[in-house]
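haha ok so turns out i had the wrong file open the whole time. this is the CORRECT one, sorry everyone. sequence first:
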Amino acid sequence: MPPPRPDRPRRPRLRRRTGRLTALLLLAATALFPGASPATAAAPAPVPGELRPYNVDAVYSSGISSGGYMATQLHVAYSGTFSGSAAFASGPYDCAQNTLSTALNACMNTTQDLQLAKLEQTTRDRSARGLVDPVANLAGDPVYVFSGSGDATVKRPVADALADYYGRFGASVRYDRSSAAGHAWISPLGPNSCAVTQSPWINNCGLDAERDLLGHLLGSVAAPSAAPGGTLVQFDQNAYAPGGAAAISMGDKGFAYVPTSCSDGALCTLMVALHGCKQGYGHQGFGTQFVDKAYLNEYADTNDMIVLYPQAAATTTLENPNGCWNWWGYLGDSAYAHHGGKQIEAVMAMVRALRGSTAPPAGDRVALASVDAQDGYVKAAADGSGATAGTLEDTYGLALGRGTDGKVNRALLSFDTSGIPAGKEVTRAYLTVSRSGGSGDPWASPAGNRLLADVRTGCFGTCAVEASDWSAAATVSGGARFAAFSSGTATSTDLSPEALAALDRRGTTQVRLRFESAPLSTAYLFVNRDTPVTLTVEYRQAVPVEE
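then structure:
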């Protein structure tokens, strides 16, 4: 198991914030008049700008509904960076398991078992494989969960499972289930009454949920300002999404609220706040309602806290018409919940931009999951004649070696290697596969046979699996190899320098797995029936060349 990531400071609980004189006055007023309502002064207008480095010491995530699921995904995937999380009206990590029907029936409704034990084991397995940060990081992390009894969209047992999930990893969970709230973010600035479920999905339940969640995450919290006095920066999200924000169902515009104290160099917390479905800036004129009414900016002023508001956006297809965050695997992104997930990596790039000195740390890495829709295998005679695409992938996995029909199988894998951060020097890469079945020992037929990985810049053909892929020319033949393994997972040798250079930093890289020699008799294996193959790429800051 990889060691815990070094980029996350372990914040001491009950830490005293610097605050301001106004915070002290407001705190006194709250004590004297506990029933007083918060001020409703106008929110600051967005100011076009860029994300720049600040003096950030700790990072947290929070969200509502799909944003709650994404907040949990960020926390679990990058627990070396995130020190805790808060979620309104959502469920446990990767509840949907890359399936829309599961998302609807198990992770919103309760007509299907969400299989909490399986989700826990999936998390532990991914941690062992390096797809998420070490799960040991979650122990002791503060987590706030909110569920209203009036929420018929994400039902109470689903939120119960989120609290249970975190408890299994030793997190410090505060679970607020005392309210009759509908499906909404809960805020004193909410225009809706508590029990309704309707736009803008920000409800006033007569309680200060932001005080509660921030108090739990930070250990202590100063009273909010009467009105936000910082700057709301509007930035271009395309800068953080290779291929453009729209390609991963994110909007062009994102927002970051920066208190004056943080602009002036104070040590500040960073909160990533994620809206729910239909709450994105560009969704049918919704605008900055979530940014303005979440009641985080007011606390940000008096608690030295930057609030990052990334924005999801609807697709023009039926994949994501409501502008939800990706928590079920839309647009073919099967890595959506772990390292390499396109939205996760875009948000992480924003976090790194705001943290500056850790943008990203030297020796960082990204795990890229193969694109399931473009993976497959091709079988042919030993000389390559009569090639056809295989059809048993969904049942058994990707075939390699000589099958019972006498055909020799080769597997094709596609990776979106544009996810490797720009401006970084790739230092190492390797493949991880898992065996899902087989018969015989293709490494011993003939003796010393080798399982090789050919690398192609771009695609062998059209990117979809086709018969010609069996013998199509590779950019680098035998760029890595796998030692024999009879069960479990296996990691290849490091890609050769030539294979590293062949990784397409602007788009797709394909890999073909094949045995160097055709097995002399029936001897084959199947790999990765239920999970994608992983390409792990390690990189560091490129060193400028002196002229």
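The domain at 368-541 is CATH 2.60.120 (Jelly Rolls).
again sry for the mixup
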